[in-house]
Amino acid sequence: MSEAARTMGSKRPDMPVWELSVVEAFDVTPRMRRVVFEGELGAMAYRPGQALVLAMPLPEGGTGRRDYTIRELDRSLGRLSIDFVLHGETPAPSWARRAKAGDTLLARGPRGRTVFNPEADWHLFCGDETCLPAILHILETVDSGTKIHAFIEVEGPEDHQPVPPAFASSVTWVHRDGQQSGPSSLLLERLTAFTLPEGRGHAYLIGETGNVRAQRHHLVARGLSKEQISSEGYWRPGRIGGHDHVDD
């Protein structure tokens, strides 16, 4: 392990540090770019939906912390993939656009509480494109008989991604159609019209913090306990980096 890795890890000894090297990078959709990394990942303890804290290079020098969900992980090959939403010229999307084989990053983790609850009778996923890596990876790893309902907000049809065939009819794509991404009622309106299934469910709410909070309040008002809701604010307008635990 390099001196940089030891220094990074010393700040959070409970979070392992991984040295990642880019294998390739390509666009999945016009607004989503995948970077495939390799490293010594055989010992990585991970649950689909969790993220790594990347030491992202900054234009002014140094690095800044950026949380990004693991999209795919193959321990046998020592490879993992991370998808970057291409939203503006902030450091992480800019780095992903330029990423090429041999580029390196340090990462800590994995961490995150938005993971699949196998005890639930049904599962409700709701979020914008920033949640796609987590939701799709979870759907790729659960039993095909799992009762799934998902509402995913994207700009338009060009931003759809393949869904496991067993859940193709369970995913509803909600289009902004030119509306600015960020705080809106698009997904809340879909939740309001959604009939909660019988049994004890679990909701996974991910995306812009204000939207996630409004969706959480709505589901609590309809009878879900707070323990039945995993909610994370991945971003907020005007903030670069960081995320919010939405527990209120």
UniProtKB/TrEMBL annotation:
Q: Name one Pfam family in it.
A: FAD_binding_9
Q: Where is the FAD-binding FR-type domain?
A: 15-117
* Domain of life the protein comes from: Bacteria
Q: Name one GO molecular function term.
A: oxidoreductase activity
The UniProt family comment states: Belongs to the SIP oxidoreductase family.
Descriptive protein name: Iron-chelator utilization protein
Organism, as annotated: Nitratireductor pacificus pht-3B
